[in-house]
Every structure is written in structure tokens, then in C-alpha cells.
Amino acid sequence: MRTADNRLILGHRISEWCGHAPMLEEDIALANIALDLIGQASSFYTYYGKLEGKTEDYYAYRRDAGEFQCIPFVELPRGDFAQTIARLFLWASFDVLYLENLTSDSDQEIAGIAARSLKESKYHLRHSAEWVLRLGDGTKESHEKIQNSFNYYWPYLGGLISSNQSLKGLFFENVSKHLSKATLKTPTAELITSNNHSEFLEPLLAEMQFLPRKYPDAVW
Amino acid sequence: MDQNAEFEARIARGETIEPKDWMPEDYKKQLIRMMSQHAHSEIVGMLPEGEWITRAPSLRRKKILLAKVQDEAGHGLYIYSGVETLGADRDSVTHDLLTGKAKYSSIFNYPTLTWADIGVIGWFVDGAAIVNQTMLAKCSYGPYARAMVRICKEENFHKKQGYELVAGLANGTKEQKEMAQDAVNRWWWPSLMMFGPSDKDSPNSPQLMKWKVKKESNDTLRQRFVNLTIPQANAINLTIPDPDLKFNQETGNWDFGEIDWTEFYEVLKGNGPCNKERLEARNKAFKNGEWVREAARVYAEKHNVQ
Amino acid sequence: MSSENLWEVFVQSEDGAPHEHAGSVRAADRELALQNARDVYTRRGKVFSVWVVRADEIVATSPDERDCFFDPSNDKIYRHPQFYKVPRGVKGL
Question: What CATH number did the domain enclosing A178 receive?
């Protein structure tokens, strides 16, 4: 459930760019990524829904913040383009490893969702990695912005790796290799291990869930 | 034969004009004006609907809306790509939008007040756009016509999802039905105005039709849209807000009431409910993105991959 | 001059099919051009491969030269198999 919630909330954050990206081409790219992530959340919710007799929309729209299991890393506001790219790069770097692992899950259905999602995640990684290079090795301004963004998100990686310690080594190795290629420093800040929600989740859900909450009997 | 007569003869034979062919300056100018206006409309059109992506009431609706708004960016780009073939590059065309020099469809200066607006926009606004674009797919300028073919293929889903959404509301709870009717009331007349001024007041139309850029007049297209839409509204028991609406047995058309053109020209002049917000939003996106575009440029030069 | 380069985009819809011109994108460099082409022109249906080419690197015939470039090949009927007579009943030619 945590992985589904993470995908929905991160997808929501990225979808906020639609209509406001630095170039129109990037509007489309970010919308694609948001669609992928929301679609992945959908697949996982549908899977759990079958076990628990609930719909995907129940999980997205009828649960309170306390019932959501997403981590602060995905809840933080979208920030500027550098922040969006830094978070997406870190997410995708981890997600590719996570999903690769999951494709050999003993549950065929989970393995199938992972295999489909993996293709998408590999592209997210490619797209964000290319932007990390351009922002890192672009202008002085872009270098500072992307470096600050990595510094900002770094402690929150604790939440991402907490339940997947075995992937930790390879993940940090891959990330720091790419950061140095982009002339960036790998942050050294300590990781936050608590997964308590941030103050940003509640308002996000209030916005996302307002129609189904206001008209509980309506079907959309 | 002089170049102009040769050009007119090619148009008369129904030939397609391609970017490198000789064309009258005015043909080029009118096309740049019309195509960039069309592209800008797609881009500004992302904003009113984009407002609702984070508030869509189901995951299915959220994905549909996101894909639709994304398509609008894509469609804007197809047309900008066509404008580039006339030597008007993207920076200058974008500049004209951001400074308010270039126009875009006035419809996008109306606000989206409720979720029902998202459905009615798909049904009316995209419905009207499809009527217009189906005609433009046969336009004499090759790159524009080809962009329209591509867009028409993709845009049918836009109208269908909108109608499905509204039909669901119309069959839903009392509040949902009221929401749907209210949105129909607000969007009907602005949608009719999308086809532009009446033929007798449309300064550019005769020349554009002579050049086969436009193949049908504003009023003809408007009538086609009305004829298509009324039965669709009847089928889901929503009322079109026009007391003069009447089926004309003789012509087979739905006769409709007089359009309030004062409102049209006010919105066109920039006095619409959201003109300022829309342009500000575009300017903000452009300005906030400047450092990103600059970084990409510098990187490309540094690594010689431009 | 626009700040980003113009790239023409060619899309191959399936294995064995030719690449067809789809439109253009603006991008600062090759990789971004390729990614933009993917996002702008391949959102639907089957796609097998995409090419991007700097627009200013394309060499094309000009409309004035159409006559001398293409008409001469249009009246050489001996290039077409229908031009040749074969005795009745002979097959496999």
C-alpha cells in the first residue's frame, strides 16, 4: 500500500506542472510522467481492492491522511523545476531497482504490475537524469539550484529506503556516480528515519478529495 | 503568367501549397496570424481545465483530464511547428502571445467554476473546435492541413469524454444535475461565438475562402455545430438556454436566437472575466522557465551536442 | 533566430515501415530533441522508431527546379515493365 500511495501523491505533485512548465515540450513530458505514476497507483489499488472488496477510488478519495502510508519525500510541495527534477531523479533511481526486484515477486499479479511500471520508470530515470546533467553542468544559477534541491531532499531519502535496505548500496552508488558526472556533490546530510506525515499531506488531500467528500452519494 | 496568377491558378486547381512554394505576402501573413492564434488558443486553453486536474473526483477522470490537457499542449506544438514553416519562429510567435499582441480564442477567458464545466468544455468547446478543424484539414496550406488531420484524429476523444461526463451528471444526484445545467447555461453562448463574427461582419473571411484556407463561412460552421449539439442535449434532458431555438422543417436546421456581439467584442478586447489571469499565467511560466532554457543552451554548447 | 534549435521529426510506426515526417520540435540539444519528439509525436498508437534531424541540415529541391528535376524521368516508359511485348503464353517474366 505504501508504494501505491507514494505513486499517487508524487503523480499529483508532478501533475501540478501541467500548463506551467518551462517549455511546452516539458509540459507534455511531465504530464506523461504524472500519468504513468497515477496509473501505477491505480494498478496497485485495484490489486488491493480485489483482496479487500474496495474500489481504487476508495483508497484515493475516501481515506484520511492518517490512513495514507506515503512518505514525506513525495508529499513535499513541487517547488521549482530544479526541485521537481531532483526529486524525480532520486525517486526513479530508486524505483527502477525496487521494481526490478518486484518483477520476481511470487504473486504473479504484483510481478506483472511491476514489469509494466518498470518500463515507465526507466524512462522517468532517463528523462530526469538528462535534466540533472543539464542543470548541474549548465549555468552557475542552474548548478546552484539543482545542488540546493538535492541537499533539500536528501534527508527524506530515509523514508524511501527504510523498508528496502538491501537496495540501499546500489542506489547510493548509482546516484552519486551520476551527480559527479553532472559536476554536483553528493550530499552528506543524515537521513531522517521517521515516516511521520509532513504538514503538506492534509491540504493536498483536502484539494484532491473535495468533490467526493462534499457529495458522498454522487458517482462521477 | 505572373507569379500571382500562377498561384491563384494552383489554388483553383485544388493544389496544396508547400512551404518553399511562392505565395503572396498577404497569404503568408494571414496564415501566420490565423495559425498562431489557433496554436495560442490550444496553449491558453490548457489553463481553465488544468485548474481541475488536482481536483478531479475519480482516478479515471483525473487520468482523462490530464491526458486531454496534455494533448492541448501537443496540438499547440503541432500548429507552432506549422507556423515555423512560414519563417515565423517560436520565440517571436511566443513573444506576441505574451505581450498581448496576438489573440487567442476568447472562450478561454471564461472561468471554470465547477466540475461540470470540465465536461461541458469538452462537449461544447471541443465540439465546436472539431467542426472548425475538420474544415481546416482540407485547407490549401499543406503543413496546416496536415497538423489538422493529426489533431482531428486525436481530438474526438476530447468531445466524447466531455459528453460522457455531462451525461453522467445529468443522470446523477439533484446537485449534479443542477451543476450540469448551470454549466450548459454559461458555456452555450460563448461556444457559439467561437466561430467568429457573423459572415457580414467578418473582415478576413472572403479572402481566406478565396484562398481555400477556410472552405466554409463562420455562419455555416456555427449552424452545423448547433444542429449537431441540440439532439445531444435533448438526449440527456438538458436545456439549451435559448428561447428562440426552433427546428426549421424547411431548411432542416435548428434556428437559434441572436448572439450578443457586444459581449464578444468586449472579451476580444481583453475585458473578459479572465483575460488578465490567463496572460499572467503564461508569462509567469515563461519567466520562471528562463533559467532552465538558458542552462540547456549553455550545456549544449559546452558539450557540442546542439 | 529562436533560442533553441529546430529539429524535424520522423516516425516509424512499425517494424519494416518507412520513417515518415511528423512535424518539428524545438530543443537545445540532440537528446532533448529526441525526448521531445517522443513526447510530442508518439503519445498514441504503435511506434517503432523515431529520428530527429536538425532542420537546417536538410537539403531539399526547390519548387522552381521541379520541371528539370523530375519531369525527365516521367517519359522514359522503357523503365516500366508494361513497355515490353512478350509472346503469348510465356509465363514467369
Answer: 1.20.1260.10
Residues of chain B with pLDDT under 50: none
Whole-number pLDDT of residue C72: 82
Query: Is residue C21 predicted with pLDDT exceeding 50?
Result: yes
**ipTM metric:** 0.95
Which CATH number do you get for residue C17? 3.10.20.520
CB-based contact, C79 to chain A, within 8 Å: no
Q: What is the pLDDT of residues A67-87, one digit of tens each?
A: 999 999 999 999 999 999 999
From the candidates C32, C41, C43, C52, which should be mutated to test the interface with A, based on the most A CB atoms within 10 A? Answer: C32
B113 touching chain A per CB within 8 A: no
Nearest to A167 by CA among A99, A118, A218, A219: A99
Q: Which residues of C touch B89 (CB under 8 A)?
A: 1-2, 6
Does C32 fall in a domain? Answer: yes
Distances in Å between the alpha carbon of B193 and those of B240, C59, C62?
15, 44, 41
Q: How many domains does chain C have?
A: 1
Q: What pairing do the DSSP bridges indicate for beta strands C20-27 and B254-255?
A: unpaired
**Beta carbons of C26 and A32 less than 8 Å apart:** no
- When scoring C35, C40, C50 by the number of chain A Cβ atoms within 10 A, the one with the most, hence best to mutate, is C35
- CA distance linking residue B215 with residue B211, whole number of Å: 9
On whether residue C66 sits in a domain, the answer given is no
With a CB-CB cutoff of 8 Å, which residues 15-34 of chain C face chain A? Answer: 25-28, 31-32
Cite the beta strand spans of chain B per DSSP E.
246-247, 254-255
What's the pLDDT score for residue C1? Answer: 45
Q: pLDDT of C45-75, one tens digit each?
A: 889 999 999 999 999 998 888 888 888 887 8
Residue A180 has pLDDT above 70, yes or no: yes
> Which positions in chain C touch B71 (Cβ < 8 Å)?
43
**Which residues of chain A have a CB within 8 Å of the CB of B74?**
28
Residue in this structure with the C-alpha cell 490489486, named with its chain if needed: A47
B176 vs B115: CA distance, rounded Å:
9
Closest chain A residue to C24, measured at CA: A25
Count of domains observed in chain A = 1
Residue span of the structural domain in which C48 resides: 3-61
